[in-house]
What does this fold into?
Amino acid sequence: MSPALQNDRSPRARRLTRKTSITPASRTALKATSRGLVAKKRRDFDPHSFLATIGEGRRALTVPKGQAIFAQGDTADAVFYVQEGRVRLTVVSKAGKEATIGILKEGDFFGEGSLAGQSLRMGSATAMTDCAVLRIDKKAMMQALRREHEFSDLFVAYLLARNIRYEEDLVDQLFNSSEKRLARILLLLAHFGKEGTPETVVPKMSQETLAEMIGTTRSRVSFFMNRFRKLGFIHYNGGLQVHSSLLNVVLHD
It folds into this structure.
């Protein structure tokens, strides 16, 4: 705006402009309110109930511990939803090297690549514990996403969160030490949240699996796990417990 036009504005108009400007604090408050509304909307929508009523094209599966849900190279024609238990996602290279790319819990989707034109599974999914899984045919899933906007919003939010997680994993692999990578993955597996509260990780999570997840050897994982235990960051009591103090390893330069 030119100086001449600025001078033409009345004192009252200038006062109104100053009053309606958004301060950084106001902007933060607006963002927090927006996040709260989104969170409330997600709480109000129950994907369990919705997926149980979408009609044909869905099938409830009971998968015992250790059994494959699908294997790398299988036809990709469905999406899966974890109702109970833990699922491990893995990929095997042409040379036969296996890598764990994710551990899924109740409320997670997997196999969504079938919706984007993926004809064959790029990896395998195996039950880490006894699982209850809902198998949803590709066609039924597409219809559900078109019909129910709240479900579509929830699914897109899940995919975005998964994508962000993969980006963070890549940055972690590129720039952080194996000790920091192990600390981070343990906190993620424990669903780290409340300060000072130990939360149980997947029972009997093998050190080989942890090594695959962070890209190091089992012996290095064993070394760091012993160090974390001696420092009081983790505790073994039937299952592995992770304490919030482990965050110090991730934050320490």
Q: What stands out?
A: The chain has a mean pLDDT of 81. The CA atoms of residues 82 and 107 lie 5 Å apart. The chain has three domains: 3-44, 47-173, 176-251.
